[in-house]
Design goal:
The structure is a single chain. The chain is built from 28 helices and 16 strands. It folds into five domains: 6-93, Zinc finger, CHC2-typedomain (DNA Primase, Chain A, Alpha-Beta Complex); 107-239, Alpha-Beta Complex (DNA primase DNAg catalytic core, N-terminal domain), CATH 3.90.980.10; 248-365, Dna Topoisomerase Vi A Subunit, Chain: A, domain 2, CATH 3.40.1360.10; 375-436; 466-607, DNAb Helicase, Chain A. The protein is 52% helix and 11% strand. The strands form four sheets. The protein has a five-stranded antiparallel sheet with strand order 1-2-3-4-5. A five-stranded mixed sheet has the order 13-12-14-15-16, sandwiched between helices. It has a four-stranded antiparallel sheet with strand order 6-9-10-11. A hairpin with an 8-residue loop joins β10 (215-221) and β11. The chain has 608 residues and is an alpha+beta fold.
Amino acid sequence: MPYIKKTFITDRLLPSVSIEQFINNYVTLKKQGTNYVCCCPFHKEKTPSFNVNISRQMYYCFGCKKHGNVIDFIMEYKNLDFVSAVEEVAQFAGLEVEYETSSLHSKSEADRFKTYYEIMDRCASLFSKVLRSEKGVLGLEYFKEKRELSEETITKLRLGYAPAIPNFLRDNLARNKNEEQCLIDLGMLVKGDYGVHDMYRNRVMIPIFDRKGRIISFGGRTMGDDKPKYLNTKETPIYHKRNELFGLYESLLLNNNNPERLIVVEGYMDVIAVRQAGCTTAVASLGTATTPEQIKMMFRYTDKIVFCYDGDSAGRHAAWHALEVITPILTDNKKINFAFLPQEHDPDSLVREEGLLAFYKYVDGAMSYPEFLVMHNAEQYNLKAPNELTAFIGETVRLISRIPVDPLRAVSIQLLSGASGIPANQLYDMVNKEIEKPHEKKERDLTLFTEKNESNESNEIDLNSPMRRLMAFVIQQPIVVSSVYEDFHLAEFAELCQHLEIPGTTQLNMLLRMIEESPELTPANLIEHVRDTEYERIVDAFMNSNLNLTMDNGRELSFKDRLAYFGVLLKEVLLKPLRERAEYLKTDIANGSLEALAEHSAIQKLLN
């Protein structure tokens, strides 16, 4: 996709748009004090918890924790990618988007992508037309007779048929060499040793939509037992299968972007069959095992995911893979369940033979995450044999230690106790020892400042250290920091923190330099400065951490009071490490070190 100039966003676009006016175009805001509130458009609620802060040009929901600036809002509200969101905000502001001048990331590239989407849409229309023609009789019979799909379903999903003609798509759709090349780029035509030919032949065609409702790929299915059963479009400039889910667009459309749950099934036809039966929340991965990107995407829209697979070994394996992928990104407010159908059924056959209620019976009775973790692992061992029981306990303890959510970990331990016969308190000790292994402890200690915090969807960080509180203040109040940058000697302060090896100093230094270079930096602008950088998640995490900077009436503390608070934070950051440094220097002083004595004296002045 094309690159938009960052300076256009930070210097022209964001200053030109009032967040309350922009958001008020999509939801009705009500004035409350100095801010605006409404019921959150991103989750169901009866009392308003969605807050628009005018001074910071940010929104924040106290219910679902979603937050950001105007660009984040429209990305979330309309399921837009970043470039499309910026273009929409720019249109609201009456500004022409400025793109990078690089030949690879220019406006012409944006036009090329629009051409890609337009051509894929024409492909779908052509395949649908063929399905209704003499060439598509077999395909229409397959959908109607074998799959029992209605006319309405076939039409709504834009299902089609690719005839067994090697050059059908090229001859009937490509109007020139440029469009032929686009079809090659999109994986619809294949260039081989014997020239260019169609990728799909004698297959029913199932369009794949992105979250904006654009066709980005196709799944081509045989009507018999030919292999491969499904032929999927290769990775293309507009299609990356790790980041897409079949059926997600329709699920969001039918549930106002907020489905109560999403049900992950194995195949395209499973999704189509259960949707025709009345289930609006089924999705499927696209020819690959479920990926972290797909799970994170689902978590953006729902708090509950049910993985519903066939009861055979392949289905169990797919479910276990999903559990392993999802474990690092579990949070307190997310629910994961696993349902397994009888071995003779998949969702498609079950709803056609027994109806939707039979399908829901299995989905509603799905196992919880802890139940599946312990049960599946137990099935891999003979628990009556002491050696295998030992191995089962060790392996399950290791898995449980990786769970980032305390209640889930506790329930898993209780279930393991029941399965193994080992008292829960002993298992707690074993899990804690596994957690405290040196290499893992080091990883957790570094998480705040060097790794993405995937275990907390809202990404808020507990402010349980002075450095954390200071970083939160700098991120939330950059104007205050800028106003006293020289008076408070912040450059020297950062050097002292570096000398004392205080964790987080590198990131603090980056933020302070950014404020020094852009004195008028606002929180909304700061988001754009760090977007798509290693610091994005840190800023996002601290942006809405609660610093208690508001009075009882909801108004923000005065500038003078926030300034005083900032001074206290600076002192708090240095107090503990300075005292520790002073203690350390006493040994060198006793040995006659004048340098140690001078440093100790300087520290005492700071402490006093």
